[in-house]
Amino acid sequence: MTGLALDSPAAAVAEEASLASLLRCCVREVAGPRGQVWHAEPYTLLRVAATLLRIRTHGGLALRIEGTPEWLDRGCWQPLSVDMLVRLVETELGGSNEEFAAQVDASRSAMARLLAVRRGTSPPADPWLASEQGLVFGHPFHPSPKARGGADWLRYAPEAHASFPLRLLGVRDDVLAEAGDTGPLDELGTAPRGYTPLPAHPWQLDLLAAELAAPLADGRLIDLGHGSPSPRMAVPTSSVRTVYEPRIDRCLKFSLDVRITNCVRKNSWYELAGAVELTRRLEPVFRDLSASFPGTRWLPEPGYRSADLGTRLLEGLSVIVRASPWSVCRPGVTPLLSGALAVPGDPPDEPVRWWRAYVERVAPPVLDAYLTHGVVLEPHLQNVLVGVDTAGLPVEAVFRDMEGTKLVAGRHDLSGLPERVAEALTYDPADGWNRVVYCLMVNHLAEVAASLAGAESTRELWAVAGEVLAGYAGSRGWPRPLADLLAGAPLPAKANLSVRWARSADRSAGYVPVANPLAVLS
Q: What pLDDT, in 10s, does the model give residues 452-461?
């Protein structure tokens, strides 16, 4: 592990967290589907590459791990390490993937560096931004949740409590590319006559330096520095490439040509057009959802701006304008990232009451968006903010990120859109339902329930969730997909280990069935 001593406290915590993530993946995607997982209280046993492992678990579907994982060596249990587990996974899966071990190691090293840096920094005073910057360990079911490309990632890392000034370019008006409402961007600084200001992520400008040389030399682009002087800097949110710009009270989603977990994080040209199109189409949908489920909010993405200098720079310099959560939450309500609420911490005074309010805010609008409106929201832990009142009780749910939001094929007229834009905006009904159920039940509610229950059983919490979902199902005439869900049909869980092993695009990720925690209640 580079940069830190192997026996440092940060390195030890990173090792523990990395091992837990990879073990969860093994249970869900490797040993589980092969029938090689057993429960022998107080342990869960699994076999990987003919080697027997044992772990202590709690949290139900979230599979929280406590204590030291072990492997059986000639009749004696020995501590398990990340490096050994990687070798077992490589043997079990066969074939060749020379990137896999390096990705796991890079993620572990990143965690250690982040933990070390955080000891000497302070989180933002804004509670929402502090929650955005608190996800040190990343996706709990990913083999390399903090793998991050690029040499300068730490200076721009939200987990390191980073903040920085954006750069401002001037785009000559004859090569300006934009759509929708981009007016707030003009408040970041002025450009000479014949040019339009374009904010840029400083990391991305470094990554694109070679491609930018020609347009900067011939005047199609000009470098305006940091725009209007301001002591308030941009703050990166949990996705790394989306920042909050306090000067205009907007979130700005940039492209970053680096791999973060599964994907190179860029705004594809068709996603730029799609964000504006979806915002237009979703305005009436969210008006209806807000009327049916008070407290439902969303963050529109009304416009994008870039430079029409070929696809590479059109995508690479693009910025999508997004509303900020403070602008949509009512006074007295504080938005918090759901992912931060899934991190173990101090539970509320009345956890069951808190949980009921949480599920009531989050689940029904997601289900109704799909069943009533044919809209697939992507309510995973980084795409949902929960607004809490002064007593800390959930009273609002804020949904964001149009990239993951889709329309159910056959329920919307997309005939006027370019074919590639329309294709990127749609899911077929089955894929859409799988995405909704995975994000809502497996990725989101299971993790929050596990943190709320601590080491205790989550059964009571799932009983409450079942009551909330049944109440919604009854109000809609018990639609078949929801009836099956409440009857205990297996849930789809995204196969992050498999897609990393295959080195496939994230959109190619499949699902594996996992036990439905509502099954024992039906």
A: 999 899 999 9
